[in-house]
Amino acid sequence: MFSIFVFLVNLTYHVYLIVNKGATWGKDAYGLRVVKYGTHVYISYKRAILRELVKAMPGISFIPIVGSIASLIIGLINVFLVLFTKEKRTIHDRIAGTQVIKFKKSWSTRKKMAILLPIVISSLLALALYSWSTLNWKKTHITDTGRISKRTKVPLFSYSNRKFSEAHNTMRRSDVNKILYAVIQYKADKGSIPAVITTSEQEISKNGADLCKFLVPSYLAGLPVDPLGIEGNISSYKIKDCNAPYSTHYTIFKDASTNKITVRAPKAELGEKVENTLQLNF
What angle do the packed helices 2-20 and 45-56 form, to 10 degrees? Predict the structure, then answer.
């Protein structure tokens, strides 16, 4: 909902000003105007909306991997068109039949500072508030039915719960692999696995399977911590001080009969099972 709101505000801002004034405040500051291609005529609402929809490519960046790659390619093409073509018309200008032209002199530096600086500062403050709230939101417990447990606090941006959970599980998969491969590398160098790894599943912590002293910093710059164990302090994402108490919220154990090592993320969200197992065959 927040993303939709931001998109609609952005669309309204661009369309209204371009149709009625010929330019947004940013373009006007540099004496630019958006006009119908080949003329000096301001464009219609229909053409302005088409231009902004194509420019925004709504939703494409939300498609995993493919969306990000497509957005990057489109952005690079637009940069090329602006820098190396005579008309400097981007993809959205070509589709909408528009063109950005130099219409008048740019604003004076004083006027730019007086009008645009407050906008820039407000945007930075909004971004800082969003970043702060993201890093400090309290963890939520999502049940199998998708409801938020009453026992936990709702984060400031609750609309993002599922997105956060998906991102957390992606991070967990990466962390599990890092820990597991560090143990395998340790065995390759030392000839045996760390003695703290037993057939009982233990948390990788100071009071459990204390892997820090075996793996840090020779095999890992720091032991990764489960995202829900960070508690808003991003600096604690990696354990580097092996003498201080720590908890990673990841577990590890070995299978005596199959000679396999398993690293697991018990806090995995959305009902996913996040773990990895490797056979020690050397």
Answer: 140
